[in-house]
Amino acid sequence: MIEETETIEEFLTRRSAEVEEAVRKAAAAEILPRFRRLADHEVDEKSGPHDLVTDADRLAELQLTEALGALLPGSVVVGEEAVHADPATYDALQGDTPVWIVDPVDGTRQFVHGDDGFCTLVALAHRGTVLASWTYAAARDRFATAIRGRGAFLDGERLFAGPPAPGRDLVVATSHPDYITDEEIRVLRTLRTDGFAPRDCGSAGLEYLAVARGELDAVAFSWEAAWDHAAGLLLVEEAGGAHLTLSGEPFRVTGGNALPFTAARDTATARRVAGVLRTAA
Prior knowledge:
single chain; alpha+beta; about 35% helix; globular
């Protein structure tokens, strides 16, 4: 547990590996046993037919909430399923207490359909700053981590996004049209122009990882839910990338962002994508 005189940064030095182990254990206990084995009664709709939740989501989040709270006493957890049950839980992001931001199954639709393109996302934030992140693609057994100022890693290897190759279209993953409004679709469609190759996104966490690896040039998203973005944004930053909202400022996990926003493999690409989006906003 964190000691009274220990900073969060010191805690991360000592205990980051234990956070990773907690994520692996939750996936092993509650997610992987249900992958491609979900029964009908283990899947429910939340806001509609495209907004799904499973027993894996609920139970993995409960296990992570207990484990992460024990690792860092005095911290709180803002998890996707807990916020769905009690929206006031989200307010903890505005406070002074360390906050674990948890998405137990990012890419639930893929998970439900037996696609391995899902992951578990955990980030630790304090006073609005994301300090560390853990991204676990359990079905692929790939684990990405980042600590602010210390780099981003995938399975222990340092990630460097690097600039896009000159002279080719920028590949940008955008908010999936099933989840957004007609107006948001209209704005994102401005990327259907010369020099860009937009496509619908899958799991946000895995798209951020692709940016951090230099496999994807950018993402452009139109929603703010911290559990979808916190872990991935830090990965991108620590791999040398950047993120910008339409106001020209970095994305804030506490909310109030000018949307849509972009995260890209370098600053120049982020500015280019944001500039195109700004023309339609």
